[in-house]
Design goal:
alpha+beta; Copper-binding protein; signal; four-stranded antiparallel beta sheet; three-stranded mixed beta sheet; 112 residues
């Protein structure tokens, strides 16, 4: 009886020590495959179509990546940009307006 009790205690102690280690370890399977096969010639960059609307009473100048745009007061411009493109103000500060993500597909962004 004493030997069975000792084995049961050892088994419980081993499981208590092992469980936090198992849950703390990161599971990295998909990202390593993506690193090997993700950026081939057939992989296309996702383009997002969105509309910039100038809701102010003055013309706005913005940069969409490296492309300078002037949006007249009260008008809209439809853009098709790759994911990750930064839309900033076209001044010395270069303030970030928006970083293009796939969730913005088909939306209208109003600048005030």
């Amino acid at each position: 009886m004493n030997r069975r009790y000792l084995i049961a205690v050892a088994l419980v102690a081993a499981s208590l020590v092992a469980s936090p280690v198992v849950f703390a370890s990161p599971i990295v399977g998909v990202s390593s495959l993506h690193a090997m096969f993700g950026r081939g010639k057939t992989d296309k960059v996702k383009e997002v179509r969105l509309t910039l609307n100038n809701g102010s009473s003055t013309d706005r100048q913005v940069l969409a990546g490296d492309k300078a745009l002037t949006i007249a007061a009260g008008t809209s411009v439809t853009l098709e940009l790759p994911v990750g493109t930064r839309i900033t103000t076209n001044d010395e500060a270069k303030s970030l307006i928006l970083e293009v993500a796939s969730r913005y597909s088909g939306t209208t962004v109003t600048l005030k």
